[in-house]
Automatic annotation (TrEMBL):
Organism: Sphingomonas sanxanigenens DSM 19645 = NX02
Residues the entry annotates as binding NAD(+): 30, 35, 86, 122, 155, 266, 331
Known catalytic reactions: UDP-alpha-D-glucose + 2 NAD(+) + H2O = UDP-alpha-D-glucuronate + 2 NADH + 3 H(+)
Active site: 263
UniProt EC number: 1.1.1.22
Keywords of this entry: NAD, Oxidoreductase
UniProt xrefs under InterPro entries: 6-PGluconate_DH-like_C_sf (IPR008927), NAD(P)-bd_dom_sf (IPR036291), UDP-Glc/GDP-Man (IPR017476), UDP-Glc/GDP-Man_DH_C (IPR014027), UDP-Glc/GDP-Man_DH_C_sf (IPR036220), UDP-Glc/GDP-Man_DH_dimer (IPR014026), UDP-Glc/GDP-Man_DH_N (IPR001732), UDPglc_DH_bac (IPR028357)
Coiled coil, from the record: none
A GO molecular-function descriptor: UDP-glucose 6-dehydrogenase activity
Family designation: Belongs to the UDP-glucose/GDP-mannose dehydrogenase family.
Protein name, entry field: UDP-glucose 6-dehydrogenase
């Protein structure tokens, strides 16, 4: 199979590298000459575990290559995947499809024989019909079937998700296109991953429905967490207690500072727009968007409260800036709103993130970025864990406490058992569990002395 991937961004690059690894010939095309040059030198434009190695080995075998020349690449391709960005359109929240349509026009102009055009980008219901119309206009004599094949890749786990998917959704009623898609994913269904064939519009909606449902699940447990704090219950146990019910399932029930990232915020908004356009209200998703938006700032206020109600002139350490671990992605990261709330309150913020510092720097110009977690703790009046990087799971808490001006730990991802924080002398605030206060003087002798001498 000769496959072309239009867009060497997150989705296109991971999908292209994985399809090459299945034995197909894949060309990843992008307009960004710098990106193509970097990829040819095995420099990845994003941080994704395992990606550099996967790209390198497939480039070496000759199955994977990169190009700026779209017309040459697509001319005799068996399948052309469109994996360009569909950001939220400024102002109205609609998905911006200009990149998808521009790519479609270029593809149409370059086709020389029958092919299958696959939309991998997350696109609103009905986009496939528009893509088909454009192709018919630009290349009326070419037989080009249009398929919707949404991706369900999680950043940080994308290669595993591609190679061991829960399902592969293929939206087309065209028999030839179905056969091509079956051949492309053959290694996966041999592995028993279900191939779900649907109508094209249905496949497009499945993607949005899946993301909106997951966003709802997270938002639901976040609100249960707030209630837990009021009634002295433990949200981790509540999540376990409901998650053991097979009908609910244990995943996506981790309470935290609210969802962020490149998908959930944008896709929930786009789904609402589609619902509005078709006068079919989605009140639950509306509430999810609103509750999640308010939550991020509320988490900033939670930190201020834990730090005594006022952070003016205080130093706050922040651990984790990316929207989740194992990525360098800062898009819609809860850390942005949390840090802004702290800065607005007059705090000095010092932050550390294992992979996200470069992306964070221009977005958080008023934050001092430091080289490791302990530097973030130094002299701080409170320390906040915003992202659950593994690196933060096994900190020497006593050392952290000794470094701080005041031993206040706010764990917005519930990664520490309260007893452990207590044993290190912390006042410990988490999400959906009662706050606890340890004996700081016991671990910081100097403080005990200061207290004794008044
Ligand atoms: C998501 C979907 O999982 C994926 O299928 C889709 O293709 C793209 O969007 P991603 O955005 O990479 O993937 O990350 P995910 O792991 O789903 O997390 C999204 C957000 O929800 C993060 O901010 C994460 O911290 C948050 N989250 C997730 C929680 O707060 N609690 C949870 O239990 C799970």
């Amino acid at each position: 199979m000769k496959i072309v991937m239009i867009g060497a961004g997150y989705v296109g690059l991971v999908s292209g590298a994985c399809l090459a690894d299945f034995g197909h010939d894949v060309i990843c095309v992008d307009k960004d000459a710098g990106k193509i040059a970097d990829l040819e030198a095995n420099r990845m434009p994003i941080y994704e575990p395992g990606l550099a190695q996967l790209v390198k080995s497939n480039v070496e075998t000759g199955r994977l290559s990169f190009s700026l020349d779209l017309p040459a690449a697509v001319a005799d391709a068996d399948a052309i995947f469109i994996a360009v960005g569909t950001p939220s359109r400024r102002g109205d929240g609609h998905a911006d499809l200009s990149y998808v349509f521009a790519a479609t026009r270029e593809i149409g102009a370059a086709l020389t024989g029958p092919t299958v055009v696959v939309t991998k980008s997350t696109v609103p219901v009905g986009t496939g019909d528009q893509v088909e119309r454009i192709l018919r206009d630009v290349a009326p004599d070419i037989e080009a079937a249009v398929v919707s094949n949404p991706e369900f890749l999680r950043e940080g786990a994308a290669i595993g998700d591609f190679k061991r998917p829960d399902r592969i959704v293929i939206g087309t009623t065209d028999e030839r296109a179905r056969a091509v898609m079956r051949a492309i994913y053959r290694p996966l269904y041999l592995n028993e991953a279900p191939l779900l064939f649907t109508a094209r519009r249905t496949a497009e909606l499945i993607k949005y429905a899946a993301n909106a449902f997951l966003a709802t699940k997270i938002t639901f447990i976040n609100e249960i967490a707030d209630l837990c704090e009021q009634v002295d219950a433990d949200v981790k146990d509540v999540a376990r207690g409901i998650g053991l019910d097979n009908r609910i399932g244990p995943k996506f029930l981790h309470a935290g500072p609210g969802f962020g990232g490149s998908c959930f915020p944008k896709d929930t908004l786009a789904l609402l727009k589609t619902a509005e356009d078709h006068e079919s209200p989605m009140r639950i998703v509306e509430a999810v968007v609103q509750v999640n938006e308010q939550r991020k700032r509320a988490m900033g206020r939670k930190v201020i409260q834990a730090a005594g109600g006022d952070v003016r002139g205080k130093r706050i350490g922040v651990l984790g800036l990316t929207f989740k671990p194992n990525t360098d992605d800062m898009r819609d990261a809860p850390a942005l709103a949390i840090v802004q709330t702290l800065l607005d309150g007059g705090a000095e913020v010092r932050a550390f993130d294992p992979e996200g510092m470069e992306a964070a720097r221009p977005m958080l110009p008023d934050v001092t970025l430091v080289g490791d977690p302990y530097a973030a703790a130094e002299g701080a009046d409170a320390l906040v864990i915003v992202t659950e990087w593994d690196l933060f799971r096994a900190l020497d808490l006593k050392r952290v406490a000794r470094l701080m001006a005041l031993p206040i730990l706010v764990d917005l991802r519930n990664i520490y058992p309260p007893e452990e924080a207590l044993a290190a002398g912390f006042s410990y605030t988490s999400v959906g569990r009662s706050a606890v206060s340890g004996d700081f003087a016991a671990v910081q002798p100097k403080m005990a002395e200061d207290a004794a001498t008044g």
